[in-house]
Amino acid sequence: MSEEPGNSGGESTLTVLLAGGVNLAIAVMKLVAGIISGSGAMLSEAAHSVADTITEILLLTALKRSARPADRRHPFGYGKERYFWSLLAAVSIFASGSMFALYEGVSTILGHGEAQSTSVLSYIVLGVAFALESISWLQAVRQVVRESKAENRSLWTYLRLIDDPTPKTVLFEDSAALVGLLLAFGGVGLHQLTGSEVWDGAASIAIGLLLACVAYLLGRTNRGLLVGRQADPILVRGVRDHLSAAPEIEAVVDLQTMLMGTDQVLVCARVDFDDSLGAADLERACVRLAGELVEQFHDVTEVFIEPVPRSDPELRAAVLARYGDIAERWNSAAQ
Fold this sequence. Notes:
- By secondary structure, this protein is mainly alpha-helical.
- The chain has two domains: about 10-225, Up-down Bundle (Alpha-lytic protease prodomain-like), CATH 1.20.1510; about 235-335, Alpha-Beta Plaits (2-Layer Sandwich).
- The protein is about 70% helix and about 10% strand.
- Helix 2 runs parallel beside helix 7.
- Residues about 1-5 have low confidence and may be disordered.
């Protein structure tokens, strides 16, 4: 997490714009093919692409609104707006994509759907859509792979700890889109081979379940970020080590961090200073240490340092309740 803040903002915007343009074009093609053929799977895929297009609009809103500077009403800035709009994007995937696909699939299986006819247009649209989605997917993959390598992390670890939901959302929805296209191809093909609409309906249901899973995973990620997740563990350890090494500090009693937005971390440290320090020395030490943390860890944007005695029983109990055995090890190392 040592990148300069904002470095990934331009690439995130490019990723979202590319995905949005691709999804809009694909949605129109799928809708035309679905209406002509009456295929439930094609109509479900059209709804899928519409949901993805809405998602990109919400993500662009997230990128723009979260970049606003801090003001009197929001002194810590608007970074969490990115998480809010990304959460709405996850809800959009479920509401406008998954629910429609499930409804269309059940209606087709029960024989309540429109009469279907096999059309070569469906295969053409699915093939073109797969090619276009692959372009958007490759851009999302390139971004997350490049950023994970920059942090010396595996791709899965990076996706789990990422504080920018935008590339993760695009990657997940594009991956789901490619799988959905294969499901739709299978449904249309099996319907043509067997003459049974059950296969088409089953493909629609599978697409709906796929979208529901993606919506859940993205919703869970953004929920954690909105609630106020701790910063990257590597950053937390680095901040603790830096404070512990300061000559004025005898022990880091408590350290709390929270993601305030993408590349924005709030640090609150309670430390036991050397008792021989005067008030002026204490003030200068706090100012110097805060500046060093912001300079060394570019994601750190706000630092609060509070002098406390390490022997305070209430504070010790609160730290132990929050961190458990880890706090015990910290305390032992400080003594």
